[in-house]
Design goal:
Low-confidence stretches: none
Number of strands: 19
Shape: elongated
Mean pLDDT: 88
Number of helices: 21
Strand content: 15-25%
């Protein structure tokens, strides 16, 4: 064998060894791949599925909308509208920070502030970028296809009547939880329960498939309030005009259905629009008619007369001597504008005699007077359930001094809310029966409780009609075609060191139609500025306007139509 042939053979052997080695390496590599595949897809399949799920399967909340609040006739007062909230996973969004200014522009945010929020939240997986944007804005955001940026469907509260019902309905926070008014009082009823679903997401965090439903959402229940939006509008419009006309600081009106105890209207000035969150301040959104107290002045006198009648010692025709036009209790001199002399209980109310009602109250036992006041609801909250309602102030008779009993007779040293005073007058209007106050529409009137004898209630109501007739103090509360029973009140406001002599509260409380009362209403005007400030001049006309339109809207039959000449009727029939 030659040297050249030997060298070729050796080269062939070396090539074969290398080929065998490489083949063995690839065979081992292929075997390891097969083994790994078997291990991952057969032996460790569950682990891989978990890892895939953790990267692509997410649990999302399904928002539930709150129930609708309506007036008694079904008109919407608060509804939920669908909106979208934009959120992001800061870790996933970080690689696309160059697009943050564009994102901020769509959302109406400062790009530098948004950038800082994102960079400060790198340890989080969820960050709200903007809550409650329109679906159109949400579509613009999604069109950017930014990693980690997502849209979540939510609901935002909308109040169709705006400031007309703002104080009553209240509002919710950005998470749709009730914060004030009916929204808070009935939050447990209105609030829904969010659901949950499992979704499949792509590498950019966008949902591509709904995998399964975990828990369905349960939407809130609707609430039918007692308010009649038509009467609410009338009261709102009339009160607003009065506040502007008399340059008053504030005012309230409450209208009750005497037959059922339902609140048909409750308005305040100044007011606020619950659709505008910039107006959310306690000074503006508190419901003064239910939360604020005031001294009722002469509007409390009918309750004092009722207490006298209940004692059995007095009748409507009983005579009280008011001469010489004043009475002294302790160091205080209580006066009338002029000496009325000997007058009946009816005249005491019609002419609003401080002397007469003081003498009447001083003749009663303190416990008699206090018990009657409490039966009318003074000193305790109504059954409205409204958040923040005040119980007013009625000191127990054990703590009374003679002057306390005297000033109570004409409305000082006792405090009430407009709603409480309306409830007291409703007792007179329902022949002595007190029915629970309700802010929710009732399918059937709740059973009442007798607080006053029918004879006493009827007698006081008839006396109050004289207040509105010529010669009384409340003639401006008269309503054409209807008999009206009511009482004026003008009270000095309490100030540091005593009572102010130039700041007043003007009040009118009344019932209509007096023959069979359907409505009880209270008007309170706080600090009218100008020449007119008496309840007879300021509050009484407001009462007349509201009651006149309310009776018409409720189709209540007139009970005081003018008498017609029989001869004119015969002439008309003969034509």
């Amino acid at each position: 064998m030659t040297r050249g042939a030997e060298t070729k053979q050796q080269a062939a052997n070396r090539f074969l060894r290398r080929l065998t080695l490489v083949s063995a390496f690839f065979a081992l590599f292929a075997a390891s791949l097969i083994a790994r595949a078997v291990h991952l897809q057969v032996l460790n399949k569950e682990f891989l599925n978990q890892q895939a799920d953790s990267r692509h399967l997410r649990t999302e909340r399904i928002s539930a909308h709150r129930g609708t609040i309506t007036d008694r006739n079904g008109e919407p007062l608060a509804i939920s509208t669908p909106v979208d909230s934009i959120w992001a996973n800061p870790k996933k969004l970080a690689p696309a920070v160059d697009n943050v200014p564009q994102l901020a522009g769509i959302l109406g945010l400062d790009s530098q502030l948004l950038m800082r929020r994102i960079t400060r939240s790198m340890d989080k997986e969820f960050l709200y970028l903007r809550r409650h944007v329109s679906p159109e804005k949400a579509d613009e955001v999604l069109a950017l296809k930014l990693p980690g940026v997502n849209v979540q469907r939510e609901y935002r509260r909308y109040y169709p009547a705006g400031e007309v019902t703002g104080h009553l309905v209240g509002f919710t926070d950005i998470d749709d939880d009730g914060q004030e008014g009916l929204e808070l009082a009935f939050n447990h009823w209105l609030a829904g329960e969010s659901g949950a679903k499992r979704v499949l997401k792509d590498r950019l965090g966008r949902s591509v498939e709904n995998v399964e439903s975990i828990r369905p959402p349960y939407h809130g229940k609707d609430l039918r309030s007692s308010i009649d939006l038509r009467i609410q509008y009338v009261a709102y419009r009339t009160l607003k005009a009065a506040i502007q006309s008399y340059k008053a600081e504030a005012g309230s009106i409450v209208v009750l259905d005497i037959h059922t105890g339902e609140v048909l209207a409750v308005v305040n000035q100044p007011t606020y629009n619950p659709n505008d969150r910039s107006q959310y301040s306690a000074e503006r959104y508190r419901n003064r008619a239910i939360t604020d107290i005031f001294e009722p002045g002469s509007s409390i006198k009918p309750l004092i007369v009722a207490a006298a009648l209940e004692s059995g010692e007095y009748r409507p025709s009983s005579i009280i001597d008011t001469a010489p036009g004043y009475v002294t209790v302790g160091a205080k001199k209580i006066e009338d504008s002029r000496n009325l002399g000997r007058v009946s209980l009816t005249t005491i109310l019609a002419r609003s005699s401080n002397v007469g009602v003081t003498k009447l109250a001083m003749e009663l036992q303190p416990d008699q007077l206090w018990n009657t006041m409490t039966r009318f609801g003074l000193g305790s909250m109504t059954s409205s359930g409204f958040p923040g309602e005040s119980a007013g102030l009625l000191t127990h008779y054990n703590h009374w001094q003679p002057i306390s009993q005297a000033t109570l007779a004409y409305g000082y040293g006792v405090s009430v809310t407009p709603l409480q005073l309306a409830q007291a007058y409703a007792v007179l209007g329902s022949n002595g029966i007190a029915r629970p106050i309700s802010l929710v529409a009732l399918d059937q009137a709740a059973g009442g409780e007798r607080k006053l004898s029918k004879d006493s209630a009827t007698a006081v109501r008839r006396m109050l009609e004289e207040v509105v007739r010529p010669g009384g103090t409340g003639t401006k509360a008269a309503v054409t075609g209807y008999r009206v029973a009511g009482k004026t009140g003008t009270a000095w406001k309490f100030a540091a060191g005593g009572y102010s002599e130039d700041k007043y509260i003007s009040i009118f409380a009344g019932l209509a139609p007096a023959s069979n009362p359907r409505l009880a209403a209270v008007v309170v005007i706080d600090e009218p500025n100008g020449e007119l400030y008496y309840g007879s001049d300021v509050a009484a006309p407001v009462f007349a306007n509201v009651i006149s339109e309310s009776l018409r809207l409720l189709a209540v039959a007139p009970d005081a139509l003018p008498a017609r000449d029989p001869n004119s009727i015969m002439q008309a029939m003969s034509r």
